[in-house]
Amino acid sequence: MTVSVVQDAAADATSVAAEVQAPTLLQSVRRIGRDVAAAHADDVDRSARFPIEAFDALKEAGVLGALVPEGLGGRGATLGEAGAGVRALARYCASSAMILAMHHLQVACLVRHGRSPGLLRFLADVAGRQLLLASATTEAGSGGRLRESSCAVHAENGRFVLEKRAPVVSYGASADAVLVTARRTPESAPGDQVLAACVRPDVLLEQTGQWDTLGLRGTCSPGFMLRAAGPLTMIVDDPFADVAAETMLPYSHILWSHVWLGIADAAVSKASAFVRRKARHEPGTVPPGARRLAELDVVFHQLDGLVSATLARYDEDAGGRRAEGVGDAVTLNALKLGASKLVVEVVSGALAVCGMDGYREGTPFSLGRQLRDAHSAELMVSNDRILGDNAQLLLLSRDPIENDRHEGKP
Ligand SMILES: Cc1cc2nc3c(=O)[nH]c(=O)nc-3n(C[C@H](O)[C@H](O)[C@H](O)COP(=O)(O)OP(=O)(O)OC[C@H]3O[C@@H](n4cnc5c(N)ncnc54)[C@H](O)[C@@H]3O)c2cc1C
Asked: Which one of 1.20.120.1200, 1.10.540.10, 3.40.50.720, 3.40.50.300 gives the CATH number of domain 24-129?
């Protein structure tokens, strides 16, 4: 054997070993959830503070570039991989997981709808420098009406300026950039919107409210007066109507529901540990909580099945398809409406199993944080608003049983 053959073999062995050892996205996030986020979750919740430890670790592991294409230095992950990571993190700290979900969602909007050299350079920066992206769609006056803006982009000499009164911007103070919806021009109708990537230091956020809430306290989502400027190339190329229908709607509802699934994982795991402990203490008997656990398992599988089925339908990298029409909007809204209720049912069911040990803080079975976090699900775009939207969409669509969402299409 010649020296060069030995060297080639050694190099091959090293690269195989590196490949074997490189953790997957899910492995990295699961480890960070278990080893870092879990240790700080109660303090993050109590102090309503940004989960800095978890995010330092996620950045270190390159997780913020998960959805950036490999050609731009990211990991090129699929929606399903991103969802699995978010779910794994939510088991330990739902605030951290919701922040990661919201960040992934913003990145997806840029990847799928931004083509300008400025936006491509910015995406490479997101992966390379692990930039954290926030979102300002909600606006004072119009609330959660995603498809209408009052504020407008003012363009001059290749640059824009924009001001928005944003009543809820999660982790705004910790973000490196904010994706903002606005009318295309000051003359545009409220629904003629664009999405602008507003990057520090050219975006100023003046805090206008407090964030002292029931749950998801670590998302740190107060109101801000947002003032931004930037080159026009930082405005997403596709109209926001397309961004919203094709990407924001599926990615938000699918990634958020993975957060809720992770909260449900934590609750079921605590309930099941509680029943096993009871069974050990009274051998030969079936503890009374076992029946409730079996009921809880049914609801948990409804939630899991609903999320998995919708993911399979829209994970384009895994045989799914792009959301586009009325039927898709109804299906995705139904995921949000269903999953946001089921997560509360699962955590409440777990509380019934664990009783006082679940109700009391500081036990291995405490469920207070999970229950409070779960209740945010129905408000993150109000379920009433979404039900109202679906009521109108179903009137527009053909027979919902006959239309394409039920014709066995993936
Ligand atoms: C934890 C958390 C984080 C968030 N982060 C962000 C963020 O980063 N960026 C951002 O832009 N926004 C964010 N939001 C805001 C969110 O997405 C919604 O836009 C916001 O919660 C809507 O606020 P609202 O319920 O006061 O307003 P609205 O949506 O205006 O609803 C107010 C009330 O009116 C009723 N209502 C509204 N419409 C209808 C209707 N059509 N039919 C019947 N009843 C109706 C509902 O019952 C609702 O309770 C966040 C919210 C939460 C809870």
From this structure: 1.10.540.10
